[in-house]
Amino acid sequence: xxxxxxxxxxxxxxxxxxxxxxxxxxxxxxxxxxxxxxxxxxxxxxxxxxxxxxxxxxxxxxxxxxxxxxxxxxxxxxxxxxxxxxxxxxxxxxxxxxxxxxxxxxxxxxxxxxxxxxxxxxxxxxxxxxxxxxxxxxxxxxxxxxxxxxxxxxxxxxxxxxxxxxxxxxxxxxxxxxxxxxxxxxxxxxxxxxxxxxxxxxxxxxxxxxxxxxxxxx
Length: 218
Hints:
single chain; mainly alpha; 12 helices; 0% strand
């Protein structure tokens, strides 16, 4: 067995995948159980980046449970650990989760700063899956700030990117996503919404990122 032989790193990635699969299905208890095993493995391996990932995932679980103070604490701890390494994508993912949290708490300026930082990190590191996650967050933020056409463009761009990557929205994220999209749809007429969404879908990755980071957007 990998654990008995001391080859702890061989179980880390499967445990992360199991934790994520449980989380995406809304099985928070199951996800946390896998993260407990993951924490034991990374502590045995002395993995600093693994500890940052564990904190991030626990923070994400807390975020999806609506336990915002705990999520903020865990995600900040993850950021502090991640900054000691050179994993740009991990730090970007922490920032995006923090951005979603700030958005849920109504801190729009903080949300933009964190989501934009995460988007830059994902784009620079070539992590397209993370880019679509950040674009979705910035689209939701635009909708909250009543920039409805901009929001529809960014939602459309994120949707097209997911399709190119062969991704689907995890069930645990869909209600929040549909809530934000519905708010944007009701804020503009059908023609403008459909046109803006189609414009976003037609953007290149660089165009979508550039739109999301325009200085006058937020």
